[in-house]
Amino acid sequence: MTSIVLELQHDALDRCSPVEDLLRKALVVARKLGVTDLQTWIEHELGGYPEGAEIPDYRTVHGQVKCFNPYRGWIPMIFEDPRQAELCLKRQCNQAVPELESLVGGDGMLQMPFSPEVERQLMRGMPVPMQPTLVVPQTSLAGILNKVRNGILNWALALEQQGILGSGLSFTPREQEVAASSSYNVNNFFGPVGTSSIQQDVENATQVSVSAEVDLSRVREFTKELQANFANLSLTPEVQDELRAEAQTIETQAGSPKPKPAIIRESLRSIRTILEGAAGGAGGALLAKLVELLA
Description:
single chain, 295 residues, alpha+beta, 4-stranded antiparallel beta sheet, two-stranded antiparallel sheet, 13 helices
């Protein structure tokens, strides 16, 4: 009977073989050998990375932020803040391999829509509000698929070196024992892994994440002081409601087991814009602390 491990190598070398099919065959091998780490990785590649899951670095893609001008078509967005540009131009893709394969080679422009919070922040500084989106080249998605293919090939070669080949779809107890005693770390075959921060679930759009570090203890202190001074700020009822909503968003994120730093920073920037229009000493003092917090 043929060896499923050798078949896996053969399929990985064949660029005409879909990565989706390659992953399914690799899943059979991983499950029958009891290699749980790789099994989890394969399942995420096949079904997409859920919120809170660790996303490999090779799934970070780079693109260009563009806005649609009804008279000029798609035009590039110019960033004045380098930190904001870095967050918006580099994104993590958590979409399933079958979806990525359907996008590569297709017609049209590949877009990664922003979350409503990020979109609102980007449009706030525009003289004429235009909806922004991240445009990514197809080569970025093709690069993800190539990394997956190469990772599976390297793993199949490592199995062969250990004498694990399989007969048909079966493995001997000895092969299973060798696999159980070996360390098949995802990083060994597929690169470093990083934690995703903002997951955006947009239909027919690549799902991504943006991250930025924040000091949660300082954020909590600032939010408490802000709420204590609501009455001292000269704001209209509508603006007060907006300020409370942003503060509540920060509190929810700061108290979450897996807080999303980018959402916190976006809410802090929204609060900064509100405080810049507030009169009085309380607003000025809070604004000074907020500027330091966002530095």
